[in-house]
Design a protein that fits this description.
This protein has 213 residues and is α/β, with parallel strands linked by helices. Helices cover 51% and strands 10% of the residues. Bound molecules: iron/sulfur cluster.
Length: 213
């Protein structure tokens, strides 16, 4: 009889645990997912995020993700950083809001590259830790992951890491591990939105101070 792990997945890839490649977007999400799955899967992390700008931020998130994989003893690879890939993928969608068509193409780009990597290393299944975020729609992730998987002849596992308070747990665990938590999604547009929010908040604070005087 084929053994089934607690997530309902057949453990057929190898005698011990099934292999699962994890697309990693950042260390806090990675930490909780690795913590959750490590007992049931043979994991490997793949940091693939041409969306992140600027380079300094990319390097910071990548280094933190590598450190987290090391903490859990999980192999880690990072794709070559090619921000132009993201620019090309979303060039006609720059005026769409976060969570819309621009993000769908951004997911597709990253999951396509992850699916190709999965195929190249001879593994048969991958997923992404991005589903932990309340800002990332699970239907959009599952759709783009499935398209990417089919194109490369591998399998996308549609985990929803939001379940069981995944996001709150990732915050708690990343605090315990002292991990860097970014305050914008990644692309230059989300950074600009973050900067606007900060400015507006700063303006509100100044108005409050003035009204006290
Ligand atoms: S907001 Fe996030 S998911 Fe959407 S395009 Fe920017 S980096 Fe990608």
């Amino acid at each position: 009889m084929i053994p089934i792990n607690r997530f309902g997945h057949a453990m057929t890839d190898q005698p011990a645990k099934p292999r699962l490649l994890l697309h990693i977007c950042c260390a806090p999400d990675e930490a909780w997912v690795v913590h959750t799955l490590a007992a049931d899967y043979d994991l490997r992390c793949f940091f693939c995020n041409p969306n992140i700008q600027p380079l300094e931020e990319y390097n910071k998130r990548c280094a933190e993700a590598a450190k987290t994989a090391g903490h859990y003893g999980v192999p880690f690879d990072a794709d070559v950083y090619k921000p132009q890939d993201w620019e090309d993928a979303v060039k006609d969608l720059l005026d769409t809001p976060e969570g819309g068509a621009r993000c769908e193409q951004c997911f597709l780009l990253r999951l396509r590259q992850t699916a190709r990597f999965c195929k190249n290393i001879g593994w048969s299944a991958f997923t992404t830790v991005m589903s932990i975020s309340p800002h990332k729609r699970i239907e959009m992730l599952n759709k783009t992951g499935t398209i990417a998987a089919e194109e490369s002849g591998v399998r996308y596992e549609p985990f929803n890491f939001k379940k069981n308070d995944g996001f709150l747990n990732s915050i708690r665990l990343s605090k315990e591990l002292g991990l860097y938590r970014q305050d914008y999604c990644g692309c230059r547009l989300s950074k600009a939105e973050r900067d606007d929010r900060k400015k507006a908040h700063h303006g509100d604070a100044e108005d409050t101070e003035k009204s006290k005087k």
